[in-house]
Structure to design on (255 residues):
């Protein structure tokens, strides 16, 4: 049977650190630059940090749930890890690229595996203009914010903002407003993943807005451009019995 050189990474919680010690003792542990696969121990938030931290190596990542939320994780078991990795099904994630221009004129670029979100910085609602592939689609959206989510991120902040759940692997993005005031009936859109999205901040000095790609925040932005990366990918590994597609379907019928 093939064996894999594993690099274990774990969140700082007591439970995850105990699992790290037990798994390392049984299967060995090598540095990420010598590994063939990364095993991440924690919740979905830790999985996101792992994807960002190790994206340069582009190693497949197999997660085990040792946190409060584990949609991107497999169940935690000590036994048969090598066999589980061998049988795992691969899902390729393609992150979003955010280019945020601030009031100072500087441009910050960041990646988001879950979502890019724009949020008001003060008590006043944000006023933004939304363009798609160079064409203005919403001349003025008044809201607390707006986000663009990948399929992987559609069950996170996007779902909490009443956005649609997108199947893993689908060539789609979800654009979802956060507490929209006007237009009152606009509840978002499902976009092709090749879409080029531009969001311009109207009156940024009176109504400042921040932009965040996963956990990377840029404050006082005046425009933000979002597209799917054409170069970057990361691969998640799931047990065949993980039932990711079934879980996605079930999420849509939970009350």
């Amino acid at each position: 049977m093939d064996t894999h050189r594993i690099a274990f990474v774990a969140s700082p919680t007591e439970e995850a650190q105990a699992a790290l010690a037990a798994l390392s003792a049984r299967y060995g542990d090598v540095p990420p630059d010598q590994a063939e696969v990364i095993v991440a121990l924690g919740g979905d938030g830790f999985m996101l940090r792992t994807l960002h931290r190790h994206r340069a190596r582009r190693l497949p990542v197999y997660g085990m749930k040792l946190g409060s939320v584990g949609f991107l994780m497999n169940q935690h078991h000590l036994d048969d890890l090598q066999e589980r990795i061998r049988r795992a099904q691969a899902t390729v994630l393609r992150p979003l690229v955010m280019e945020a221009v601030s009031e100072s004129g500087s441009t910050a670029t960041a990646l988001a595996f879950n979502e890019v979100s724009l949020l008001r910085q003060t008590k006043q609602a944000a006023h933004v203009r939304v363009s798609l592939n160079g064409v203005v689609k919403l001349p003025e959206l008044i809201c607390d914010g707006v986000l663009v989510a990948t399929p992987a991120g559609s069950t996170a902040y996007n779902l909490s903002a009443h956005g649609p759940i997108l199947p893993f692997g689908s060539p789609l993005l979800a654009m979802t407003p956060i507490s929209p005031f006007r237009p009152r009936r606009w509840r978002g859109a499902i976009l092709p993943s090749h879409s080029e999205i531009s969001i311009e901040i109207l009156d940024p000095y009176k109504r400042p807005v921040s932009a965040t790609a996963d956990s990377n925040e840029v404050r006082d932005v005046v425009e933000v451009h979002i597209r799917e990366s054409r170069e970057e990918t990361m691969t998640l590994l799931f047990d065949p019995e993980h039932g990711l597609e079934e879980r996605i379907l079930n999420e849509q019928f939970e009350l």
Q: What stands out?
A: The chain has two domains: 6-93+233-251, 96-228. The first helix runs from residue 14 to 27.
